[in-house]
Amino acid sequence: MTIFSLVYMLFGIMSWLRGDAEARDIVTCFVLGSIHCIAGSWLLISSLRDYREEKRRIEAAVRHIMALRGGRVTVAELADIAELSQDDAREYLERRTHVDVVVRTPGKQGEEHYVFGGDYWKN
After folding, report:
1. Please, which residues have CB within 8 angstroms of residue 18's CB and are 6 or more apart in sequence?
2. Which of 9-18, 36-45, 67-76, 77-86 shows the lowest mean pLDDT across its residues?
3. I need a surface site. Which of 24, 57, 60, 101 has the fewest CB within 10 A?
4. Topology at the third CATH level for domain 2-122
């Protein structure tokens, strides 16, 4: 959206500099550009807020499960507690394996267990 606002502003500036457009057209370009810029900024801020809230919710869920299970986290349990899909939960835990000491083991019913190392409380 912000790119459209830049295009509208550019049209307005070029028309104003060349002097070949009416004032109404120039103002229209600036108004449309401003509306797009404000809407794009609002969408960006709202998206960042949602992302941070989801990240906080997942971290809290992982800490809760680790406290209950002694460092063992299952994909299904994380997905249920954090209210997200199992694919997203699996992706999060996979990213955590690159940062923390984690052992991945298969469960009895085909579920995946991620067992965090002894220092999981520091995570």
Report:
1. none
2. 9-18
3. 24
4. Arc Repressor Mutant, subunit A (1.10.10)
